[in-house]
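Incident review: delayed structure delivery

Summary: a single-chain prediction request sat in the queue longer than the usual turnaround. Root cause was a stuck worker, restarted by the on-call engineer. No data loss occurred. The affected request and its eventual output are reproduced below so the record is complete for anyone auditing the incident later.

Affected input:
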Amino acid sequence: MKFIRCPKCGKISQYVGSYCKECFEDYDSMNITEKDFVVPIFEKRFIYLKDEKYYDKVIMFTEKEGVMISPKTWGDDYQEDYICRPIVKSGKVISIVDDDFGTEYETKYEIGDWYLRSLAKMDDFKGNIPYGNYFEVFCETGTIATLDVWFTNKGDMFMYNPEVRSAEDLRPIKKGRYVREDDIIRYEIKDIKTGETIRSYACVINGKYCPGTYVCEEKYSQLKSIVNKPISVANPLVAPATISEQEFFDNYPCLICNTRQAWIKKEWSYYANGEISMYAECKLCGHVAQEIEKADTMKRIAYNGSRPIQGYRPPAGSVRYLDNPCPYCNSYQVRYIKWKDKRASVYFWGRLSMKIGTHYICDNCKKTWE
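Output delivered after worker restart:
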């Protein structure tokens, strides 16, 4: 395959036929020499993951200038290397140039291991994908429904009607399951009315949900094998969340009384931007705790506690529990023992009292120790 920079219009195109594909001037009327031919510095083929007969070749002649070659499809038939379009590159993003409209196409392409190609922005980007295996994605559709596709942190998937006309349309029209492995989300979803089951996939690219994606030739076989795996709740989880709900509430100390494992009215939610929201009340002192942080930060505060409230002074006589659990019942309601806790035993037993030399007491099991 040869490429030529036309001496008349200065544009690069395939050297096919007897005339320039850009300005339609005959090559016979030009003094074509070897210096008019251009050698690419970069060439890579990107294959559509759902059907390998569809692909695009990105060919760069300079760091910022190149062409894109795509096969022209006619139903099930296609002609290789049929369309050649000039492109310009900025960073990892390239844009198609179209002088007929005076501006470049709005469509953007990202070059890396992935190649995003779509005329509709909504097909390129449907929400932020946070860290972890299961998560929620809230996708703007331009309608009052605001929800198009919804993945939950429990592995469930819901699809909503993008054309909302009544309250009935706000209910899911399809339900299913999904599993994420590497950068691939595989899902199986059933139409609620017809019962038809659809199996498909989407890709996660730079934290974005991308249903239509081309992949570089080197990664095609690897990712295609992932796509073809069956959907099963028994599939192993990958990239698990940094901290679970149970681990957090088992270790998170109350900011006021410092006790652990005394939380009631607990709430735990995953946000589409990767943050986790928690809410709980301490059943001992009544303190209300709220945190909205990334998973790594949530793990840190689970073991080290929240930042102190500026200017807060605990009321007189309030209990401040220690960090070490009770050696008898493993409760975190451990505090320094006071005279009133020893008084009855000392009055009755005198110097024989077992509580004379103790320093700690558990408010849960009432045991004392040194």
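Verification: The chain has five helices and 23 strands.
Action items: add queue-age alerting; document worker restart procedure.
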